[in-house]
Write a structure and sequence with these properties.
globular, 209 residues, mainly alpha, single chain
């Protein structure tokens, strides 16, 4: 695929992936916080709507006028939970080979361009701690090349990580059940929005070339 500046284009795409990971990380914290029964009477649909409206805007939920309360998110303020951010970004990055299927007026991304974007995302802090995420960049690339369907994105890796490394979030409480139940929906919708955002970005970059 031709760009005015390939380096700039790859940077923009990698930044979008990273920002999406940060936005998902923030959205999960907001959802956990509003599960507190004595907090504001907020409909979770509003959090979903705002977070999914622009997944590359990492501060969009701040516009609700509600600030993250460290005490109400105490279980998430640990080094173990902080690793979730790099895992979220990584979980998006390994699926970048699916961009090979995006056709624009400027053609499609080649393997080298996709690998460059992936490497940029990894360099920005994405990581697969203890191989929690079973998806693999090279395997997904092989799937795309052979025309095999790529498994749907879901929250199973996140829940598995919580059960193993953050047991305080795995115990049966109203907040925890609310969190893990909503994660199934949020993660799937979030990745779908990321795919749409990357397609829009690629089309925009192709139009400029």
């Amino acid at each position: 695929m031709e760009f005015i500046s390939e380096r700039t284009a790859c940077t923009m795409i990698s930044d979008t992936v990273v920002k999406a990971g940060v936005s998902l990380f923030n959205a999960v914290k907001y959802i956990y916080m509003i599960a507190d029964k004595d907090f504001y009477n907020i409909n979770i649909k509003d959090i979903f709507k705002i977070a999914l409206n622009n997944i590359s805007d990492t501060t969009c939920l701040y516009n609700t006028g509600i600030k993250l309360d460290k005490e109400r998110c105490a279980e998430m303020n640990t080094p173990e939970y902080e690793r979730v951010l790099s895992l979220m970004v990584y979980s998006f990055a390994v699926r970048l080979p699916t961009l090979k299927n995006v056709k624009t007026a400027g053609g499609t991304l080649n393997d080298k361009q996709i690998k460059t974007i992936y490497d940029m995302v990894i360099a920005k802090g994405a990581g697969n701690y203890d191989n929690v995420i079973t998806d693999d960049f090279e395997e997904i690339r092989r799937m795309v090349k052979s025309g095999r369907p790529v498994p749907a994105y879901d929250a199973e890796w996140y829940k598995g990580y919580i059960y193993t490394y953050v047991p305080t979030l795995a115990s049966i409480t109203n907040k925890n059940v609310f969190l893990l139940g909503s994660a199934d929906i949020l993660f799937t919708l979030f990745y779908s929005c990321l795919e749409e955002e990357l397609v829009r970005l690629l089309n925009s970059l192709a139009a400029q070339a």
